[in-house]
From TrEMBL:
Coiled coil: none annotated. It comes from the Bacteria. The keyword Cell membrane applies. It is a multi-pass membrane protein. Residues 30-225 form the MacB-like periplasmic core domain. Residues 270-401 form the ABC3 transporter permease C-terminal domain. This is Lipoprotein-releasing ABC transporter permease subunit. Belongs to the ABC-4 integral membrane protein family. LolC/E subfamily. The chain crosses the membrane at residues 25-48, 267-291, 311-329, 336-356, 376-396. It is found in: Cell membrane. Its main location: membrane. It comes from Gilvimarinus gilvus. The keyword Lyase does not apply.
Amino acid sequence: MFNRFTLSVGARYALSRGSSHLVSFISRMSVGGLVISVALLIMVLSVMNGFDRELRQQILQLMPQGTIYNRDGIENPRAIMAQIQSHPQVTAAAPFVNLEGLLNARGNVVPVQTYGVEPELEQAASNVGRFLRNNRLMALADNPRAVILGAALAANLNADVGSQITFIVPRGEARGSPNTMALTVVDIFDSGTEVDQHLALMNIVAASKMTAHPGKVSGIRFNVKDLFSAGQTVLEISSQLPMGYYGRDWMRTHGDVYQAIHMSKKLVALLLLLLIGIAAFNLIATLVMVVVDKQSDIAILRTQGARARDIVGIFIVQGAIIGGVGTVLGAIVGVLLSHGVTAGVAGLESILGMQFMHSDVYPVSYMPSQVLWSDVAYICGSALVLSVLASIYPALKAARILPAEALRHE
C-alpha cells in the first residue's frame, strides 16, 4: 500500500495548488482547525501543569507537608524533632506554635492564622525566605513583638513595614477575656499564592505565651522527599511516638485543591481532544472533495496499472501530510503560547488595570504555565492518528471509482 509511487503522488496531491479554489479553501480550513485545536490543548494543559507545579513548589513549601501534634502541646520539641528526623523520608523539621485570631490595624480587623517559628529552623523547613521583601526573617528571633505578614493580609490591614498592629487571640473559656499583644510589622512576604491571604509569622516564645499551654509548642512540621509518601510517613512517625501524639499530612489541608487540578486537567484534555476529532472530521470532508476533484486523475492512474490499494495509499498519505502539517504548526504555536501566557496575562492585566486572578479565589494570583513534552508528544500523536484514521474512508471511496465511469464525460 505504501511505496515510492504512493508516497510521491500523495505528497504531490497534498502540496499541489492546482486543485479548485473550493478544495484549496477547505483544505486550508482543515489545517487551520488542527492548528487551533492542537495549540489550545497544549496551552491549556500547560496552564494546568503550572497550577500543579505552583501547588507543589510554592504552597507546599510554605505550608507543612507533614505535622505531628500533641493534644496538650509538646513540651520537649527537640527530642521529638530528633525522632522525626531519624525517619529516612524526612528532610527537615521545625517546631511551631499555631494561633488563630484577629489582627487589628487602624480600625481594620482581619482574621489570621499565625505561626510562631524559630527562624533558623524555619529556613530549613520552608522557603519563606525567598519571598520576603526585606529578608528580615531573623528579626523574629531578636524581637518578641515582631511579626511578618503576607502581602494580601497586609493590604487588607492597610499595613506596611513599621506599622503597629494588635493581635487578638480568644481564650478557650467562654467568659475569659482575649489575649492581646501589640506587634510591629518587620517584613512582608509575597508568594503570589493563597497563603498571603491569611498567614503571619511571629516569635515562637511570644506566641507560646498566648496559648492554653504556655512554654509548649503546638507541633512539629516537617518536609518529605516524596510528597505522595507524606501520609504514610506521618502514620509511621506517629505510631512510634508515645500516646497523645497524632499527625496530619498536606493531603488533609490542600489535597482537595490538588485533586481538583488533576480532575480539571483530565476533563479539559478530554473536551479539547474532541476539538481535534472535529478537525479530523473536517479532514474527511476535505479528502472527499479532493476525491471528487481528482476523479479523472484516479481513473488515469488506474488505467496505467495502479492498483486499488495504491489509490488507498495515495489518499492516506495525503491525509497524513495534511494532518502532520496542522499538527506540527499547532505544536509550535501551542508551545510558544504556553511560554508566553504568563507574561501575556500579566501585561493584559497591566493594560486593563484589573487583576484576572486573585489568590482569595485561585491557588495563585497569576497565570502559571509549564510545558511537559510528554503532553506535547501525546497530543501530537493523537492528532496524527486521528488524521490517518480520518483518511481511510475517503481513500476507500477513491479506490472504488471505476475508470470508465470517471472518464465518460471527459
